Amino acid sequence: DRGSPYASGDYRARLAHYGMAASMSRTGNCWDNAVAESFFGTLKTELTDPARYATHAAAHAAICDYIDNFYNLQRRHSHNGCVSPIEYEVRSFTTAA
């Protein structure tokens, strides 16, 4: 996003303070973060939007469980030929061997 909050001096100074670099593509290039945006949209739709968590730790545990035990192992991804990422990786490794 190239919005003014992300390009502001205060925001960029805070990033620098924490040793972080902004990921900002050129104007009109919306593909820079497309994969991450797609994942976060899926995460919100499938897990966090319908739920309420009592603590930050509970939310963290639920998100880690979702990624480690569902998203990567079971959830079918249309980009991978409708198989899970782990199944896609196994097939790719087997084909390469």
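The record above closes out task 2.4. Task 2.5 opens with a second protein, given below.
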Amino acid sequence: SRYPAHFGAAVTLHLADGAVLTAEMPDALGDPENPLSAERVADKAMALFAAAGLDEAQAAALRDAALALPGAADARTLYALLP
């Protein structure tokens, strides 16, 4: 009912003993309302790169090039690292 203002989720578990457990996250992790730290963003990027098949050295080079973009003259270094 909060969509599209919020992109959260909720889950309800009905256990065999009759207990009901509910948890709700109104805003997804990484959304502006529930931001990740810069370190967690970099960790997430590394996990996604690994899932895409990049080895650790390729992933680290790509991450570092992306982090350098604010001070870079252009994006050529980043572009050259893309698989």
